[in-house]
Amino acid sequence: METLIILLVGVLTAVAIYLVLSKSLIRVILGTAIFSHAVHLLILSMGGLKKGTVPLLGEEAESYVDALPQALILTAIVISFAVTAFILVLAFRAYQELGTDDLEEMRGVNDE
Amino acid sequence: MMNNIILLPMLLPILVGVVLIFLRAYGRIQAWFSIGVMAVSSGIAFYLLEQVQANGILRLDFGGWEPPFGILFVADSFSLLLVLTTTIVATIILLYALFSAGRFLQTTYFYPTILFLIAGVNGSFLTGDLFNLFVCFEVMLLSSYVLLTLGGNKRQLREAIKYVVINIVSSWFFLVALAYLYGAVGTLNMAHVSVRVAEAGQGPLLTTVSIIFLIVFSLKAGLLLYFWLPGSYSAPPAVTSALFGALLTKVGIYALFRVFSLIFYHQPEITHTIIGAMAAITLVGGSLGAIAFNDIRKIAAYNVVIAVGFILVGLAVSTPNAIEGAIYYLIHDMVIKALLFLLVGTIIALTGTAMLNKMSGLMKNYPMLGWSFFITMLSLAGVPPLSGFIGKVLVSEGAVESGAYGLLTLALLSSLFVLYSLLRIFKNSFWGETIVSKEDQVPLKKMLLVPCLMLVLLTVGLGLGTELISGYVTDAAETLLNPDIYIDAVMGGGES
């Protein structure tokens, strides 16, 4: 199970890298979103994946899932949500002001 | 030693920041509130620093969860020195903002965002948990995104996109490093991680994880991976770039020092060699950048890069002298970079241009400004008795002790480049023929000079009064060099 998830993380990361390296701003943003999903899966699998259990230590629990990675992911999701919201607005404003979403054209002259 | 006050340097700015959001329309009131809360925080930081000298390292376990189970704040001399410097420098920068910021900035959540930024910076310095460090980094970064884009002119938006994307990617690396570290040692409490790493031995896997951390913090600190820095530090208004130049990279440097002295100190021949090489390239790149541009904002930004390289030479060498010197230099650099960016901002506001070749002879127009800049230049170059001197001497001494002559040469050469790059500004903008007559010159608000002169006094004071802070710095260096002191204080249970 862990191997499978790690492979999925690899695929997601590859997709994200491809998107982040493209010229269109909106693709870059989508890439960063996929980046964050990939790493959340990675953290989850680091806690060990078990079938059919919950992260609660009951009185007679025989197996349980490590709860800490889930708490970490929850925090990380909230943060990446906020950052994605911010950069989407930023992209919109930049498009309004600069009239382009092509990163190549956003380089700008150094001594303007 | 448990102490609830440790939380205040992070909590106070957040609380006041939230209140200020509701006072949006009243720019002046917001400014005075922010200055007040920063002054109070610096008082608290100083009180805590004294406490640490008397009682050893302080810690606060949130919710009463004893380490390693809960999140905690740990205050040792190193953290507190940086918190103290941060709050003092922020107070002075806010004072400058009060007199300089236009009505638009004053009323667009400028002050609350600055306070959130400071909260993130202080939190990063104080936390004792690696994931909490990530969260505090994000608090700081999100505020910096907002500050960078406030005003929304074309240049700011363009630079902000690069800055935000770079930082998202580096935050991603941070999470990857945290995931692998958690997978390998099963804890994220810094002291506990350090114990586990020491028990298991720092094998190839953990060294690789440490290198991912190195990449993350280098991106934040601008060590080798500084390509994003000059653009984004030179785009926003003077106040914002002064805050960025003084504080943001320093958090990355702090994290590098903490992680590579507390946790991953077992394989210095790999990690510290890499840090040394990165510092060397940073020094060269920064020096070339500093003399290459005509835009004085760019020159100032490349000076930030050089300082990062210089401080990290101290970590790469890691002798007691070098670490002590690096701490002195870190404190000095926070003060002097704030001053440099404020002066550069003032020059731009007065002349209406950032180009060196379009300004001349300002010395006649604004003598006080000129002499302030002169002192800044000397202090940055490390001329005694100003504050840059002691740090440079100690780091160089450390480099000699451990035979790192290559790094030593580069570090000292970089000082010459710093001097040359600033002399260029001084010569072009202050000397030469006065092109604007006394009658036509843009009047310099007297009050704008007050914060600058306060920082000048601070750099002179730090230089002359090195004795006064040497006790704290020695203690900070000792804790960094002996991880056991830190571990005992955190893991020592309730009785300590």
UniProtKB/TrEMBL annotation, chain A:
It is a multi-pass membrane protein. GO terms for cellular component: plasma membrane. InterPro entries: CPA3_antiporter_subunitC (IPR050601), NUOK/Mnh_C1-like (IPR039428). Gene3D superfamilies: 1.10.287.3510. It is found in: Cell membrane. Keywords: Cell membrane, Membrane, Transmembrane, Transmembrane helix. Belongs to the CPA3 antiporters (TC 2.A.63) subunit C family. NCBIfam families: PRK08600.1, PRK12660.1. This is Na(+)/H(+) antiporter subunit C. The gene is mrpC_1.
